[in-house]
Amino acid sequence: MDRRRFLQYAGAAAISSQIPVAWANTSSPLTVYGPTALPTVLLGIAAQHQSQGQSTIQQAFQVQTWRTPDILRAGLANGTIQASIVPSYVGVNLANRGMDVKLVNIMTWGLVDIVGPKGSVQNLKDLEGRSVAVPLRNDMPDLVLQVLCKFQGVDFKKIHITYTPTPAEAMTYWLNDRVEFTILNEPLTSIALMRARSKGVERVLNLTELWRDIHDHKTQGLPQAGLLVTKSFYEQNTLFLKQLQEELQTAPAWALENPAKTAQIGSKMLDIPSPAIKASIPHAHLAATAATEARDDLELFFSALYDINPKILGGAMPKDDFILAL
């Protein structure tokens, strides 16, 4: 994949990548959205299973991707997006700003890695004085890095950060040796490692494992993203959401057991080569954990973000009714 396609993948200004409608017993399909990242592939698996008659979901639905957080926020605000996988803190921020939205589940326990030369760092402290490309300032990878640095007593200001407007550009900085490290989400991490294979590089730090270590493995991981719905969408499609959640709960295991088929589904949805999708599956911590079952993990994560800056969450911790009980 050339640089132009990477930039389109990470920063295009339009919703795209619709997968074929999964037809069921109703004629008006719903649309569920997601980012161009691995959790959205779980929606694609559910849709394909329905289209093949292997699902209990009765309502027809289709999956589309949004390319930038701004498109997501605009779509939720104007009603064109009513159900979407979102960064978990974005859902809280929207709710605290008056939007009636609810979190259904968590669909990844963290898919962020720092990549760099093999054996070059053992911990975040080793990044002080070194250069790191970080995509999307004050977005999820940056915020997670800041939180972890604070917990581990690392001086974030001593890390030489180069912020980029898209994840693809952070990867490009790193591939061109303009920085020693970069922080990326899957599947871009796998793509970067494939392209730099001859340089002797690896995932030097996994942020989910760092988060678990900090909390003595009493947390499932970083509740990075999950399915968010508007209240009206839930009220009008309660049965669909329950059935979708049941189907999604089987999708992570199916993805691990069927990596080639999952990569084929993901490649069509995300416009990413199948080998990169396949390579990224074991590293994406995919899940479909009901938000009610992830409440403690969510509160732990949101508290850490709030301590950095309350504005990240829209000025307050989420209210109890932000978590939807299906």
Automatic annotation (TrEMBL):
Domain of life per record: Bacteria
Family matches, as Pfam families: NMT1
SsuA/THI5-like domain residues: 118-261
Residue ranges that the Swiss-Prot or TrEMBL entry lists as coiled coil: none
Protein name as catalogued: ABC transporter substrate-binding protein
Organism this protein belongs to: Oligella ureolytica
